[in-house]
Amino acid sequence: VEMASRQQHGFTLIELMVGVVLGMLTVIIISQVLIHSEASRRNVAMGGDAEVNGSLSLFSLQRDIQMAGYGLTNLPDAMGCTVKSKFDSEDEQTFTLAPTLIVNGADGAPDSVTVIQGHTANSSVPMRVTSDLAGRFKVESSMGIREGDQIVAVPQIWSPTDHSQWCTLYSVTHNSPSADTSLSNDNVPHSDTGTENGTDTYKWNATAIAPATGYPAGSLLLNLGSPSIRTYSISDEYSLQTVERAATNGTTTTQDLYSQIVNLQALYGKDTNDDGTVDVYNTTIPTTTAEWQQIISVRIALVARSNQFIKEKVTTTEPLWNLGAATTVEGETTVDCGSDSKCVTLKLSHVTDWEHYRYKVYSTTIPLRNVLWNS
Predict the structure, then answer these.
(1) DSSP states of 200-260 as a string?
(2) Is omega for the bond preceding 155 within 30 degrees of 0, making it cis?
(3) Parallel, antiparallel, or unpaired for β 167-171 and 82-85?
(4) 122, 9, 118: which is closest to 67 by C-alpha?
(5) Which helix (DSSP H) or strand (DSSP E) does residue 263 occupy?
């Protein structure tokens, strides 16, 4: 009995304490492994989010800018003309007849890029005016035009400094059976009264905004169909944002496209010696028709940010936009970034706690195809 009693003893206090310590060490090691694994997973996921947002943002800009100028570059001498438009009793609106317009952000702040393109069901061919009559244009040929298309009247002679001549937007109407108010091979009406097939087409045709001299013989009409005027910028919440003007009534709609885009920079690519290649990049807005015709491409850079705040400072310097070695850049401060390449610093200091996020730069050069095809 005494021997059996000695064999039935339990753990000592020391053995229990050693077991607890070993268990705690095991839990700590497993927790550290899980923490590092989760941190790695978050970094990969954050990088994936930035990749998706940056790639889609660049694709959206590239797709629009590639088609910029359709319908208006068919008449290169009209580029740069100020277009006046007015829908019903709304305020008068103006825009520049140019494929793209870059507004440079002050001191490295994000730029904005406006893209204009026409959308027509048929071909877009300039029409020569033979006479400007009340509520209609007589033309040599109205080929490709339809009721409801928006047209821009361009004076035969104009300049940015001549404030008595400008371009005007009208909408084509069709009130049959009168020959004067019907769209035909040589007649393009733009009535300012009535109802066109239940729509408000006629409300674009405010005669008061046209030049006092009108658009006499030799003036031209550009058919933009249903024009798209869209401005890309960076919102206060760091999203790629668009403001689009509706072709139906001129109202604007703002939409956030992709989040965590913190900077947008753009440069005009200009062919200054007419050899078909870019000679200089800058953000200088042209002031003459000849200068507008020099723009044959647009260079874009976007900065995408991870959406996870990191406690430590993981970004200590602002990213660089590499413009290459053979590029002449005007109006931008560049730094040498190796192999004789010129780089532009992409500002992040406007972003709250910018050092606690990771960033990725997306850039491309976009040729203005409609400008090149009509050069």
Answers:
(1) -GGGGB-GGGS-TT---TT-EEEEEES-EEEEEEE-TTSEEEEEEE-TTT--EEEEEEEES
(2) no
(3) parallel
(4) 118
(5) strand 261-270
Give yes or no for a contact between 65 and 298, defined as CB atoms under 8 angstroms apart: yes
- Residues 188 and 127: beta-carbon distance below 8 Å: yes
Distances (CA, A) of 72 to 80, 150, 339, 348: 10, 12, 41, 37
pLDDT tens track, the chain, 375 positions? 455 555 556 667 787 788 888 888 888 888 787 777 666 666 555 556 788 899 999 999 999 999 999 888 888 889 999 999 999 888 999 999 999 999 999 888 999 999 999 988 777 789 999 999 999 999 999 988 999 999 999 998 887 777 778 999 999 998 877 888 899 999 999 988 765 554 677 899 988 899 988 999 999 999 999 999 999 999 999 999 999 999 989 999 999 999 999 999 999 999 999 888 999 999 999 999 999 999 999 999 999 998 888 888 989 999 999 988 877 888 888 888 877 788 999 999 999 999 999 999 999 999 999 888 876
CA distance 253 to 36: 44
For residue 23, give the H/E element and its range.
helix 13-66
Q: Which residues contact 324 (CB under 8 A, 6 or more apart)?
A: 341, 342
**Beta-sheet pairing, 150-154 with 342-345:** unpaired
* Beta carbons of 347 and 336 less than 8 angstroms apart: no
Rounded-to-integer distance, Cα 123 and Cα 45, Å? 47
CA 153/CA 292 separation, integer angstroms: 19
